[in-house]
What does this fold into?
Amino acid sequence: MVQIREATVHDLQGMQNANLTNLPENYTLKYYLYHALSWPQGSYVATVQTSSGEERIVGYVLAKMEDDNNDDPNAGPYIPHAHITSLSVMRTYRRMGIAAKLLRQALRALVESYGAQYVSLHVRQSNKAAIHLYRETLKFELVEIEHSYYADGEDAYSMKKDLKELVPNAEDLYDDDEDLLVGSIASTTAAITV
It folds into this structure.
C-alpha cells in the first residue's frame, strides 16, 4: 500500500535517491533542504512499508513558489504562482497513478498555503509518459518550446496550468464567528492511501 504525505526534512535523502535513480537532472541535498525550508507545504512523498516495517520513499514531487514573473515578461504585476521543480516515481511503482496523486496534492497545498494562481513546469520533449500525464490527465497547456533547455542540449516543453479551479470561495475560508482561517488546509498534511 502506497501512502502520500507532506515531505519533511527527514525525507530529503530518500527524495534525492529517487531523483538520482530515475532522472538525468539531479540536485544537491542542499537544494532539497532549501525547498523544504522555504516552501514546506509544497513537496510530497509517496511511501511504502518495507518487510522490516520501515518506510521507503518510492516517489516525490518538489515544488516551490516563484517570486517574480520571469516566465512571462509581459505579465504586468506579480501573480502568485508555483513551479514544479521535480517529480519522480520509482520504475516499479509507475502506472499506478502515484505521480498524478503527488501532483494534485502539491497543487492543492500550493493554492491553499501560498495562494498560487497557476503552476509551471518543464518537461523533456522525449518524455512521452510525463507529457501525457501533464497534458491529458492533469490538463497542463503547452506554453512554448525552450530550445537546449537541458544540460545535454535537449529541448523542453514549458507548460502551465491555471489553478483558479482549486481556489476555495473566500467565504468558505473563514469561521462565521471569528476571523480565523478554517477549512481544508489541514487536510493537506494527512496521509493519502493510493
